[in-house]
Specification:
Helix content is 66%, strand content 0%. The chain has 2 domains: 63 residues; 32 residues. The relative contact order is 0.05. The chain is an all-alpha fold and 96 residues long. InterPro entries: Ribbon_hlx_hlx. This is Toxin-antitoxin system HicB family antitoxin.
Length: 96
């Protein structure tokens, strides 16, 4: 049943130097060439999906123009507010 949803990919005309470099990387990671290449293809497919999602978000929101420092400051403020609300909630340790 596992193989029922799998397909086979074949790449032709791979230069020997490229094949050898890939095989060397696979061996260094303790993987077969097949397992190494599958992981490489899966990683690239995830990266492409993530890029599509980020582009959709950017189109919807106009993207963020904040710096990393500004993001960190907002996150810190939001966490402080969340903690303050949690501590003030009925049944919290500060209530007892």
């Amino acid at each position: 049943m596992y193989n029922a949803c799998m397909v086979a990919l074949q790449i032709r005309d791979v230069p020997i130097e490229v094949r050898d470099a890939l095989a060397e990387q696979a061996q260094a990671r303790g993987q077969s060439l097949q397992a190494f290449l599958l992981a490489l293809v899966e990683r690239e497919a995830r990266r492409m999906r993530n890029m599509e999602i980020l582009l959709q978000i950017d189109k919807q929101s106009g993207g963020s123009r904040l710096t990393a420092q500004e993001h960190a400051e907002i996150r810190t403020a939001e966490r402080s507010e969340r903690d303050r609300r949690f501590e003030a909630a009925p049944g919290s340790e500060s209530d007892q």
